Amino acid sequence: MSNCLIAQSGGPTSVINATIAGLIKANQQDPVYEHVYGALNGIEGILAEKFVELTNLPEEELRILIQTPSSVLGSCRYKLQRDNPEDHKKLIKIMAEHDIETLFYIGGTDGMDTVADMAEYAREHEITNRRFIGCPKTIDNNLVMTDHCPGYGSAAKYIAFTALQSWLDLNVYTRPEVFILETMGKDSGWLAASACLSGIVDILIVPEVPFDQEAVLNRVRECIKEKNKCYIVISEGARYADGTYLSSDKAKMAAFGYTFSGGASAMLQNLILTTNTASRVRVHDLSVSQRCNIVGRSLTDVTEALNVGEVAHEYSKDKSFTGKMIILRRKDTREYEVEYTYTDASEAAGIVRTFPEEWLLAGNRGITEEALEYLRPLIEGSPERVIKDGLPAFVRPYYLR
Amino acid sequence: MSNCLIAQSGGPTSVINATIAGLIKANQQDPVYEHVYGALNGIEGILAEKFVELTNLPEEELRILIQTPSSVLGSCRYKLQRDNPEDHKKLIKIMAEHDIETLFYIGGTDGMDTVADMAEYAREHEITNRRFIGCPKTIDNNLVMTDHCPGYGSAAKYIAFTALQSWLDLNVYTRPEVFILETMGKDSGWLAASACLSGIVDILIVPEVPFDQEAVLNRVRECIKEKNKCYIVISEGARYADGTYLSSDKAKMAAFGYTFSGGASAMLQNLILTTNTASRVRVHDLSVSQRCNIVGRSLTDVTEALNVGEVAHEYSKDKSFTGKMIILRRKDTREYEVEYTYTDASEAAGIVRTFPEEWLLAGNRGITEEALEYLRPLIEGSPERVIKDGLPAFVRPYYLR
Questions:
Q1: For a designed S-S bond to A194, which of A156, B11, B47, B96 qualifies (C-beta 3.0 to 4.6 A apart)?
Q2: Nearest CA in chain A to B71
Q3: pTM of the prediction?
Q4: Mean pLDDT across A114-136
């Protein structure tokens, strides 16, 4: 019996470790592999042979692993170079030395690129006993081919309830006031759009639609006039028609003649204040909390991340299964249901899926009912929480042991 | 039978509405007052006679009221002027017109000032049938006389798990990196200190100890050398020995020759970068989320906020009970237990309780075991959550109806 290896890459998510747990659990119930290894810090750790043993993780540790946010195996931004196969060769050699037949790589578009690349290298060199399988994860929901991506639901839920709670906070005083919530999303508006689940967003600014300064400031004026408040959600990747990010120094210099720290929301805050559109503007940048949210995760998301691991393990029994990425397909049922299937990892590698423009309301007014229907099931349910001393228990990251 | 009135003042908390629910519930079970009214936006709303009827709120709405963060009655920063009794006179007159015997005022040090002030005015004018009772609330835990303050436990819990989750996030890459978490706390370090419950804080900077630039930068260097990472928590009110806030323009000009947006954490980030102490520093300002946290509240906190309302209602049966604030006293028991008693509101009015210096470790290294023992019970337990469409249900604020 050969072994398998799990590694994680790219930005962490709240449920990325549930996929590891799914793989381990599946192999405990159906031992396809003698050992389930984990590699520390993605490809970097594989090349450095930094492995940990995960095969027989006790059930209690698996329970806590499922609720541990962020990547317990560590991550990397290391990319294999297609025109320099030294890394590819070394990786295959290390896999052979440890009798590792299958590498399960949990990642986003870059991760899928690695999976596709390694599978292609193996095919070219007629190596049939080293296989590469991608498990999707990203809070950005920007992977193509899959209905949505594990990690997104919990991030969306975090953003939605943070929007709701900060909107309640904004309203307690009688003074006129603007609130700006900044989400991640360099190239797509999926995260910012999820704030609309709260039902309180007045203005939504996403990278898909060029930032129209006058239109946005007019809408702020309108909201203040109508109800004394204005609630804005903006993607970090908000940009002008020429592609310049609001957060870039160039944009700041053009608008104010000087640069200042802070991203898209700080820029917009400055604009609103210096144009006297409103006299009080508060900014809340969600920072990393949206991708490692520990208490408000979605049950749908946790369950699906776990299932992706289990399904990947099952598909890997087929000896010709390589260069694939597990995907979720939403069934055409009344109640939300998904099925798990796969596609070529190369189909998703390096491609960004943006938020559908037909789901955006005109004039930055938010998203359509169809979009909300797509989003709602993804944030449903609360997973179990194992608590220790009042805080969620977590598995100590393997790279810190 | 006369009536009572409830109003809220100052910054919101995650459990401030549980105290309203406690008052309403207590009066439903033991009808001391014919009507329980709510005033919109504190003293401002009383003077404008903006009242809502709360007497017979159905049980289901009370359940949801308990979990609704932020002030459902709205808040104000309005302060009565002691040397101008026009407002006092008007307030007494309005209470008389609506046959309101007791005003329950839920607030912090300013709110207690109002309670003390109005009670004194009534005493001076021999008005015995208008009474004023303070219910403590503040995330800052900066009220004296009480062991701790409703609102603090949930904020502390939010800060602690956010520290934990962002520390997990910080560690996933192998690169050297500093993380700075900024909490509220203009004059006291209670909120920042609560991050230490997570067990991961390397450097704690609070207003109680003057900011020592060289010592802090040295400690950052030490942490980076030892483990490649450094996790810092800083109060918004961090200051130099001369009292200048790190977040002030004056401090920024002195350090860099220019000002920039952002508070204490942005200033520290700049310092670390420009002195080449570390090359990568991420900042996370918790903004309002720490005071209106909707999903991670503490059961201890919710229960105590509710009890404060019930106890205030009970004490108010005594016709001489006025100018008082309900307080919590921690019993000398093995298991955490509190009893509810009272003090003169004037004892807490306008006084800031700082974090005990003997609970701070030297060299910004965090807090003592004694401090942790004080904090731990305050974040214990998870209250029930009523969910609607995947998000916590909330009572629509009365001032928006």
A1: A156
A2: A172
A3: 0.97
A4: 97
